[in-house]
Specification:
381 residues, alpha/beta, Zinc Finger, Delta Prime, domain 3, 5-stranded parallel beta sheet, two-stranded antiparallel ribbon, 16 helices, 7 strands, 48% helix, 8% strand, globular
Length: 381
């Protein structure tokens, strides 16, 4: 990626650690459905957007997307009629979009305006799942040919957010895919995808970058944010705390640069850092206060933070080193000496169980209180 920012925001291209996956794709013999899976925040979504654009590109040249043809321009403006994104309301801002100049009553603009008003309305919470109505609406139009006579691309992200009824609707189309219709599915947890859906897709594993490559890429992108007040050491700390997910850190820091304190990822990362400080207190943790101050964050991120912390605790308890939080290694080693190993292992199992149900509508605060109370007991006789 040469440029981070444009007049419309950040430009997302293929990350260097995903280039081998891209180079292995043959656009002329592309399967009817691919399932891209890998850790959150490593660039899968940006990769899939570029892939969808390449599949819709109408240039005759080998290297696609060309970024010059009419199809590419339509795609970049969010107006390509053969690109159908199936994403929750919480993820719509990640899609390509333009300013919708002219034709002020166009459906695209009306939907965008509605989405904007939904975000601004404090009384309405954005849905995190893909509704059956959206799935049916996307599938129903597949029986007719594509608008431009080429491919039609349906992007489903994240696949885990599909409700059971929506997943069944998708499955029917995967079993008998319409001509020139390509499904790009994205998942962070492959074990949560229905086996019947997995079996009908070609699997593409998106690797996480090694620490040196990921940090080099991240710091290079941050050079395009001259007003950002953060040291390289802090960037490295946040990078490790987020499990080596460069895009998650980049998006959070861009939101900070733009002073978007309501950004969900920013809130979640700030909450996870507060959670780390609280967990470093061991038996002295104020679990009620910690749950109260972190409950608005994304529950899956908080659980991942706890898992990484406990993983480091287990490692240090067995004379190893901190993998995820080297900045906190002295505190982790001290806590490892105080921890009761059987209780620590039971807490680890509780976290694994919680991850299986992290999208359950049960109140986040209640779940956090139960887990953090159990964490405190790890250090008690």
């Amino acid at each position: 990626m040469d440029d981070l920012m444009s007049s419309n925001g950040p430009i997302k291209k293929i990350a260097p650690w995903l280039e081998p996956v891209w180079d292995g794709i043959n656009l002329s013999e592309f399967p009817s459905a691919v399932l891209i899976h890998g850790q959150s925040g490593i660039g899968k979504f940006e990769f899939s957007i570029e892939l969808a654009k390449a599949l819709l590109c109408e240039a005759s040249q080998v290297d696609k997307p060309c970024d010059q043809c009419e199809a590419c321009r339509w795609f970049d403006s969010g107006n390509h009629p053969d690109f159908i994104p199936l994403v929750p309301e919480t993820h719509r801002k990640l899609l390509p979009h333009g300013e919708f100049e002219g034709d002020i009553d166009s459906p695209k603009k009306m939907k965008a305006s509605q989405a904007d008003s939904d975000v601004d309305a404090p009384e309405k919470k954005e849905k995190k799942s893909i509704s059956i109505e959206d799935a049916r609406s996307a599938i129903e139009g597949l029986s007719i040919g594509s608008h431009r006579g080429g491919n039609r691309v349906i992007l489903v992200y994240p696949l885990e957010m599909l409700r059971a009824d929506s997943a069944n609707t998708l499955l029917k189309s995967l079993e008998e895919p319409p001509k020139n219709t390509i499904f790009i599915l994205l998942a962070e947890r492959l074990d949560r995808v229905l086996p019947t859906i997995r079996s009908r897709c070609r699997l593409l594993a998106a690797p996480r970058p090694d620490r040196t490559t990921g940090l080099h890429w991240l710091l290079n992108q941050l050079n395009h944010l001259p007003g950002l007040q953060i040291t390289d050491a802090d960037v490295e700390a946040i990078y490790d705390e987020q499990g080596g997910a460069p895009y998650a850190v980049l998006d959070s820091l861009i939101a900070r640069h733009n002073k978007d304190e309501k950004d969900e990822l920013t809130i979640s990362i700030q909450a996870s850092r507060y959670l780390l400080q609280a967990m470093s207190q061991g038996v002295r943790i104020n679990w009620l206060d910690t749950a109260d101050k972190t409950q608005k964050a994304r529950y899956s991120i908080l659980l991942a933070t706890m898992q990484r912390w406990v993983s480091d605790l287990q490692s240090c308890a067995q004379m190893g080193n901190s993998r995820y939080y080297p900045k906190h290694e002295p505190a982790i080693k001290a806590l490892a000496q105080q921890a009761r190993l059987p209780k620590l292992l039971r807490f680890w199992k509780s976290l694994i169980q919680a991850r299986r149900h992290e999208n359950h509508p049960l109140a986040t605060r209640i779940q956090l209180e139960a887990l953090l109370s159990q964490y405190q007991q790890v250090f008690e006789d």
